[in-house]
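Thread title: Can someone regenerate the structure for this chain?

I was given the following input by a collaborator and told the matching structure tokens would be attached. They weren't. Posting the sequence so someone can regenerate them.
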Amino acid sequence: MVIKAKYDDAYSFSDGLAKVRHGNKVQYINQAGKVKISKKIKNDDSDYMDFSEGLASFYQKNKFGYIDKKGKTAFILNASVTYADDFYEGMSIVYDKKGKIGYINNKGKIVIQPKYTDASIFQEGLAYVKVKNKYGFINKKGKTVVKPVYDRVSEFYNGLAYVEKNGKAFYIDKTGKKAIVLP
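Best answer:
Regenerated them for you:
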């Protein structure tokens, strides 16, 4: 056994650290079980998430923010942000008070204003977004790369995304061109 079972809760390793709970503390341990970060939880509304791309989001005192791998606060988000997610490709999904989705960069700056009703993480430089009940794809600057004309979509993997339109399923490339048509 590498790490003794002494925690109230333990989570998977992510970005080299695992979140564990011990009493009123959230700690992050390395793979040898050494505590690298320890944060006191002041109430049940506080929480710390897993690390991704060197940052872990936290919620405390009705605000979201991120800590770095030294346990220092990297930044606190504007009070209009009601949820902040993990980072993928340098971007994180955030929700505003109206439930709209936008994106921040790893400095905490909103780079794509919350305006979408559904959106994905960035995969291969693109994220899907829902506009007026249809899905399309945007780049990291918020520019529409593939128009929102699809009923269902997936993220891009190996240069292709699964999409459905008018009951037909197929794969598209990053320009929106049909690449593989399914029966």
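The longest strand covers residues 81-88.
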